[in-house]
Protein backbone atom coordinates (compact mmCIF):
# COMPACT_ATOMS: atom_id res chain seq x y z
CA UNK A 1 0.00 0.00 0.00
CA UNK A 2 1.31 3.41 -0.99
CA UNK A 3 2.15 5.64 1.94
CA UNK A 4 1.65 9.40 1.75
CA UNK A 5 4.58 11.68 2.33
CA UNK A 6 2.57 13.25 5.18
CA UNK A 7 2.48 9.86 6.92
CA UNK A 8 6.26 9.72 6.60
CA UNK A 9 6.46 13.16 8.19
CA UNK A 10 4.83 11.85 11.36
CA UNK A 11 6.87 8.65 11.34
CA UNK A 12 10.12 10.57 10.96
CA UNK A 13 9.10 12.94 13.75
CA UNK A 14 8.61 9.98 16.13
CA UNK A 15 11.85 8.42 14.88
CA UNK A 16 13.82 11.60 15.56
CA UNK A 17 12.19 12.08 18.94
CA UNK A 18 13.23 8.63 20.09
CA UNK A 19 16.77 9.20 18.89
CA UNK A 20 17.26 12.71 20.25
CA UNK A 21 14.78 12.99 23.11
CA UNK A 22 13.78 16.37 21.67
CA UNK A 23 10.52 17.15 19.89
CA UNK A 24 11.74 20.57 18.75
CA UNK A 25 15.00 19.24 17.31
CA UNK A 26 13.18 16.42 15.56
CA UNK A 27 10.74 18.92 14.03
CA UNK A 28 13.67 20.93 12.72
CA UNK A 29 15.27 17.89 11.07
CA UNK A 30 12.01 16.74 9.50
CA UNK A 31 11.46 20.17 7.98
CA UNK A 32 15.01 20.08 6.64
CA UNK A 33 14.34 16.73 4.95
CA UNK A 34 11.02 17.78 3.45
CA UNK A 35 12.47 21.00 2.08
CA UNK A 36 14.58 19.00 -0.39
CA UNK A 37 12.89 15.58 -0.63
CA UNK A 38 11.05 14.36 -3.75
CA UNK A 39 7.34 13.63 -3.38
CA UNK A 40 7.08 10.22 -5.05
CA UNK A 41 8.82 7.06 -6.16
CA UNK A 42 9.32 3.58 -4.79
CA UNK A 43 12.43 4.50 -2.81
CA UNK A 44 11.00 7.54 -1.01
CA UNK A 45 10.57 5.70 2.31
CA UNK A 46 14.12 4.36 2.28
CA UNK A 47 15.45 7.78 1.33
CA UNK A 48 13.52 9.48 4.14
CA UNK A 49 14.77 7.10 6.83
CA UNK A 50 18.33 7.15 5.55
CA UNK A 51 18.36 10.94 5.54
CA UNK A 52 16.78 11.15 9.00
CA UNK A 53 19.23 8.60 10.41
CA UNK A 54 22.17 10.59 9.07
CA UNK A 55 20.87 13.88 10.43
CA UNK A 56 20.18 12.34 13.84
CA UNK A 57 23.66 10.81 13.96
CA UNK A 58 25.18 14.20 13.09
CA UNK A 59 23.25 15.87 15.92
CA UNK A 60 24.13 13.14 18.43
CA UNK A 61 27.82 13.41 17.53
CA UNK A 62 27.94 17.02 18.77
CA UNK A 63 25.30 17.12 21.51
CA UNK A 64 25.03 15.93 25.09
CA UNK A 65 22.76 13.14 26.23
CA UNK A 66 19.36 14.46 27.25
CA UNK A 67 18.00 13.42 30.61
CA UNK A 68 15.51 14.22 33.37
CA UNK A 69 16.32 15.78 36.77
CA UNK A 70 15.65 12.53 38.70
CA UNK A 71 18.48 10.87 36.73
CA UNK A 72 20.97 13.61 37.57
CA UNK A 73 21.17 13.46 41.33
CA UNK A 74 19.35 13.01 44.64
CA UNK A 75 16.00 14.60 45.39
CA UNK A 76 16.13 18.25 46.42
CA UNK A 77 15.42 19.64 49.85
CA UNK A 78 12.00 21.32 49.53
CA UNK A 79 12.92 23.83 52.25
CA UNK A 80 15.52 25.28 49.87
CA UNK A 81 14.83 27.29 46.73
CA UNK A 82 14.88 25.21 43.51
CA UNK A 83 18.10 25.21 41.54
CA UNK A 84 18.36 27.85 38.81
CA UNK A 85 17.31 26.72 35.33
CA UNK A 86 19.97 24.99 33.24
CA UNK A 87 20.30 24.99 29.47
CA UNK A 88 17.24 23.46 27.85
CA UNK A 89 19.34 21.32 25.50
CA UNK A 90 20.24 18.88 28.28
CA UNK A 91 16.63 17.98 29.12
CA UNK A 92 14.22 15.57 27.51
CA UNK A 93 11.06 17.05 26.01
CA UNK A 94 7.50 15.67 25.93
CA UNK A 95 5.91 14.27 22.76
CA UNK A 96 2.22 14.95 21.95
CA UNK A 97 0.10 11.85 21.43
CA UNK A 98 -1.67 13.68 18.59
CA UNK A 99 1.55 13.53 16.56
CA UNK A 100 2.16 9.83 17.08
CA UNK A 101 1.64 7.99 13.79
CA UNK A 102 -0.13 4.74 13.06
CA UNK A 103 3.14 2.91 12.44
CA UNK A 104 3.46 0.11 9.94
CA UNK A 105 5.13 -2.55 12.08
CA UNK A 106 6.76 -5.25 9.96
CA UNK A 107 7.61 -7.83 12.62
CA UNK A 108 7.25 -8.44 16.32
CA UNK A 109 8.70 -5.56 18.34
CA UNK A 110 10.48 -5.54 21.68
CA UNK A 111 8.86 -2.28 22.82
CA UNK A 112 5.21 -1.52 22.07
CA UNK A 113 3.96 1.67 20.46
CA UNK A 114 3.10 3.56 23.66
CA UNK A 115 6.02 2.19 25.64
CA UNK A 116 8.50 3.19 22.93
CA UNK A 117 7.63 6.88 23.39
CA UNK A 118 7.24 6.71 27.17
CA UNK A 119 9.55 9.06 29.02
CA UNK A 120 11.23 6.27 31.05
CA UNK A 121 12.12 4.43 27.82
CA UNK A 122 13.25 7.56 25.97
CA UNK A 123 15.41 8.51 28.98
CA UNK A 124 17.06 5.06 29.04
CA UNK A 125 17.58 5.09 25.27
CA UNK A 126 19.73 8.22 25.59
CA UNK A 127 22.42 6.15 27.35
CA UNK A 128 22.91 4.05 24.21
CA UNK A 129 25.60 5.06 21.70
CA UNK A 130 24.25 6.96 18.65
CA UNK A 131 24.51 4.24 15.99
CA UNK A 132 23.20 1.54 18.32
CA UNK A 133 20.36 3.87 19.31
CA UNK A 134 19.31 4.01 15.67
CA UNK A 135 19.37 0.21 15.39
CA UNK A 136 17.15 -0.15 18.47
CA UNK A 137 14.63 2.28 17.00
CA UNK A 138 14.58 0.53 13.63
CA UNK A 139 14.50 -3.06 14.88
CA UNK A 140 13.05 -3.03 18.38
CA UNK A 141 10.39 -0.30 18.04
CA UNK A 142 9.57 -0.39 14.30
CA UNK A 143 10.07 -4.09 13.61
CA UNK A 144 12.58 -3.77 10.78
CA UNK A 145 14.44 -7.01 10.00
CA UNK A 146 18.20 -6.99 10.57
CA UNK A 147 19.08 -7.08 6.89
CA UNK A 148 16.95 -4.05 6.07
CA UNK A 149 18.45 -2.05 8.96
CA UNK A 150 21.93 -3.10 7.85
CA UNK A 151 21.25 -1.92 4.30
CA UNK A 152 20.00 1.43 5.54
CA UNK A 153 23.00 1.92 7.83
CA UNK A 154 25.43 0.60 5.20
CA UNK A 155 26.84 -2.09 7.44
CA UNK A 156 26.61 -5.86 7.88
CA UNK A 157 23.79 -7.82 9.48
CA UNK A 158 26.22 -9.17 12.06
CA UNK A 159 27.20 -5.61 13.03
CA UNK A 160 23.57 -4.65 13.47
CA UNK A 161 22.93 -7.77 15.55
CA UNK A 162 25.95 -7.11 17.74
CA UNK A 163 24.93 -3.48 18.18
CA UNK A 164 21.46 -4.55 19.26
CA UNK A 165 22.88 -6.89 21.88
CA UNK A 166 25.05 -4.11 23.33
CA UNK A 167 22.22 -1.60 23.22
CA UNK A 168 19.78 -3.93 24.95
CA UNK A 169 22.29 -4.55 27.73
CA UNK A 170 22.77 -0.81 28.21
CA UNK A 171 19.04 -0.11 28.23
CA UNK A 172 18.51 -2.85 30.82
CA UNK A 173 20.83 -0.98 33.20
CA UNK A 174 18.83 2.25 33.02
CA UNK A 175 15.28 1.28 32.15
CA UNK A 176 12.61 0.30 34.66
CA UNK A 177 10.18 -1.43 32.34
CA UNK A 178 7.39 -1.27 34.92
CA UNK A 179 7.43 2.52 34.70
CA UNK A 180 7.57 2.56 30.92
CA UNK A 181 4.59 0.22 30.71
CA UNK A 182 2.29 2.09 33.09
CA UNK A 183 -1.05 2.44 31.36
CA UNK A 184 -2.92 5.74 31.54
CA UNK A 185 -6.35 5.69 33.19
CA UNK A 186 -9.20 4.45 31.01
CA UNK A 187 -10.98 7.16 29.05
CA UNK A 188 -13.97 7.81 31.35
CA UNK A 189 -11.86 7.70 34.49
CA UNK A 190 -9.18 9.83 32.82
CA UNK A 191 -11.72 12.62 32.30
CA UNK A 192 -12.71 12.58 35.97
CA UNK A 193 -9.13 12.44 37.24
CA UNK A 194 -8.03 15.21 34.89
CA UNK A 195 -10.79 17.51 36.08
CA UNK A 196 -10.01 16.78 39.72
CA UNK A 197 -6.31 17.49 39.23
CA UNK A 198 -7.06 20.63 37.23
CA UNK A 199 -9.40 21.88 39.97
CA UNK A 200 -6.71 21.44 42.64
CA UNK A 201 -4.26 23.62 40.71
CA UNK A 202 -6.70 26.28 39.54
CA UNK A 203 -8.14 26.75 43.03
CA UNK A 204 -4.66 26.51 44.65
CA UNK A 205 -5.96 23.82 47.00
CA UNK A 206 -2.75 22.22 48.26
CA UNK A 207 -4.51 19.74 50.54
CA UNK A 208 -6.75 18.56 47.74
CA UNK A 209 -3.77 18.21 45.40
CA UNK A 210 -1.77 16.17 47.91
CA UNK A 211 -4.74 13.89 48.50
CA UNK A 212 -4.61 13.04 44.80
CA UNK A 213 -0.95 11.98 44.71
CA UNK A 214 0.70 8.71 45.71
CA UNK A 215 2.90 8.38 48.78
CA UNK A 216 6.04 8.04 46.66
CA UNK A 217 5.10 10.69 44.10
CA UNK A 218 7.89 12.43 42.21
CA UNK A 219 7.80 16.00 40.92
CA UNK A 220 10.37 17.14 38.35
CA UNK A 221 10.60 20.72 37.08
CA UNK A 222 13.07 21.00 34.19
CA UNK A 223 14.91 23.18 33.24
CA UNK A 224 15.69 23.27 36.97
CA UNK A 225 17.68 20.23 38.07
CA UNK A 226 15.66 20.11 41.29
CA UNK A 227 13.16 17.33 41.80
CA UNK A 228 11.11 16.22 44.79
CA UNK A 229 10.21 12.83 46.21
CA UNK A 230 7.21 11.98 48.36
CA UNK A 231 4.01 13.68 49.43
CA UNK A 232 5.61 15.79 52.16
CA UNK A 233 8.29 17.16 49.87
CA UNK A 234 5.83 17.93 47.08
CA UNK A 235 3.47 19.59 49.57
CA UNK A 236 6.25 21.82 50.87
CA UNK A 237 7.43 22.77 47.37
CA UNK A 238 4.05 23.61 45.85
CA UNK A 239 2.89 25.32 49.05
CA UNK A 240 6.01 27.49 49.07
CA UNK A 241 6.23 28.27 45.35
CA UNK A 242 3.69 27.21 42.72
CA UNK A 243 0.61 27.50 44.97
CA UNK A 244 1.91 29.93 47.57
CA UNK A 245 -0.17 32.75 49.15
CA UNK A 246 -2.76 34.25 46.75
CA UNK A 247 -2.39 31.57 44.09
CA UNK A 248 -6.09 30.90 43.50
CA UNK A 249 -6.71 31.70 39.83
CA UNK A 250 -3.00 32.01 39.11
CA UNK A 251 -2.96 28.90 36.92
CA UNK A 252 -5.10 27.60 34.11
CA UNK A 253 -4.72 24.03 32.84
CA UNK A 254 -5.87 22.66 29.48
CA UNK A 255 -5.96 18.83 29.19
CA UNK A 256 -3.78 17.12 26.60
CA UNK A 257 -1.95 13.78 26.24
CA UNK A 258 1.78 13.24 25.92
CA UNK A 259 4.07 10.20 25.84
CA UNK A 260 1.05 7.94 26.21
CA UNK A 261 -0.06 9.61 29.45
CA UNK A 262 -2.35 12.40 30.62
CA UNK A 263 -0.89 15.86 30.26
CA UNK A 264 -1.77 19.55 30.56
CA UNK A 265 -0.83 22.80 28.95
CA UNK A 266 -0.28 25.10 31.93
CA UNK A 267 -0.83 28.85 31.73
CA UNK A 268 0.08 31.50 34.30
CA UNK A 269 -1.96 34.66 34.86
CA UNK A 270 -0.07 37.83 33.99
CA UNK A 271 0.16 40.97 36.12
CA UNK A 272 -2.93 42.52 34.53
CA UNK A 273 -5.05 39.58 35.63
CA UNK A 274 -6.75 39.61 32.23
CA UNK A 275 -4.49 37.22 30.36
CA UNK A 276 -2.91 33.80 30.90
CA UNK A 277 0.46 33.15 29.26
CA UNK A 278 2.01 29.82 28.32
CA UNK A 279 4.13 28.43 31.13
CA UNK A 280 4.75 24.66 30.92
CA UNK A 281 3.62 21.25 29.74
CA UNK A 282 2.87 18.87 32.60
CA UNK A 283 2.98 15.11 31.99
CA UNK A 284 1.41 12.85 34.66
CA UNK A 285 1.60 9.17 35.42
CA UNK A 286 -0.95 7.41 37.59
CA UNK A 287 -1.02 4.40 39.88
CA UNK A 288 -4.68 3.60 40.15
CA UNK A 289 -6.46 6.86 40.90
CA UNK A 290 -3.39 8.56 42.36
CA UNK A 291 -0.74 10.61 40.57
CA UNK A 292 2.61 8.87 40.88
CA UNK A 293 4.71 11.24 38.79
CA UNK A 294 4.57 14.85 37.60
CA UNK A 295 7.05 16.30 35.13
CA UNK A 296 6.58 19.99 34.44
CA UNK A 297 8.45 21.06 31.29
CA UNK A 298 8.74 24.85 31.49
CA UNK A 299 9.34 25.48 27.79
CA UNK A 300 6.87 27.71 25.97
CA UNK A 301 8.30 26.66 22.59
CA UNK A 302 6.52 23.31 23.02
CA UNK A 303 3.02 24.80 23.00
CA UNK A 304 2.41 24.93 19.21
CA UNK A 305 3.10 21.18 18.88
CA UNK A 306 0.39 20.56 21.48
CA UNK A 307 -2.04 22.79 19.53
CA UNK A 308 -1.97 25.34 22.29
CA UNK A 309 -1.87 29.12 21.99
CA UNK A 310 0.78 31.16 23.69
CA UNK A 311 -1.89 33.28 25.43
CA UNK A 312 -5.42 32.72 26.68
CA UNK A 313 -7.82 35.46 27.71
CA UNK A 314 -9.02 35.05 31.29
CA UNK A 315 -12.63 34.68 30.16
CA UNK A 316 -11.56 31.63 28.13
CA UNK A 317 -11.47 32.88 24.53
CA UNK A 318 -8.32 31.89 22.63
CA UNK A 319 -6.37 34.53 20.72
CA UNK A 320 -3.70 34.29 18.06
CA UNK A 321 -0.10 33.70 19.06
CA UNK A 322 0.80 36.77 17.03
CA UNK A 323 -1.73 39.14 18.62
List the helices and strands and how they pair.
Blueprint: H1 5-20, H2 23-34, H3 44-62, H4 69-72, H5 119-125, H6 130-141, H7 146-153, H8 157-174, H9 177-180, H10 187-202, H11 206-211, E1 213-220, E2 227-229, H12 231-240, E3 251-258, E4 261-269, E5 275-287, E6 290-297, E7 311-313
Parallel strand pairs: 1-6
Antiparallel strand pairs: 1-2, 3-4, 4-5, 5-6, 5-7
Helix pairs in contact: 1-2, 1-3, 2-3, 5-8, 6-8, 7-8
Oligomer: single chain
Q: Helix coverage percent of residues? A: 40-55%
Low-confidence runs of at least 5 consecutive residues: 316-323
How many discrete structural domains?
2
Walk me through what this model shows.
By secondary structure, the chain is an alpha+beta fold. It has 2 domains: 5-180, no CATH class; 187-313, Nuclear Transport Factor 2, Chain: A (Roll). Helix content is 41%, strand content 16%. Strands 1, 2, 3, 4, 5, 6 and 7 form a 7-stranded mixed sheet that branches.
Amino acid sequence: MEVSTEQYRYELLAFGYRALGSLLESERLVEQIFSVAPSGGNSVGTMFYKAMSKLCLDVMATSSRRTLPAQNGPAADPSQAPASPETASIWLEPFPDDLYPDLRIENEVRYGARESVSLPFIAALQFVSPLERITVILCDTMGWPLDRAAELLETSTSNVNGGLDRARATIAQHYKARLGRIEPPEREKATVLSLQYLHSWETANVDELINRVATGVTLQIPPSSSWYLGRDAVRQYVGSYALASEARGRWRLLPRRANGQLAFGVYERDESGLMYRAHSIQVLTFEGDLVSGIISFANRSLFPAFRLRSRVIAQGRMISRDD
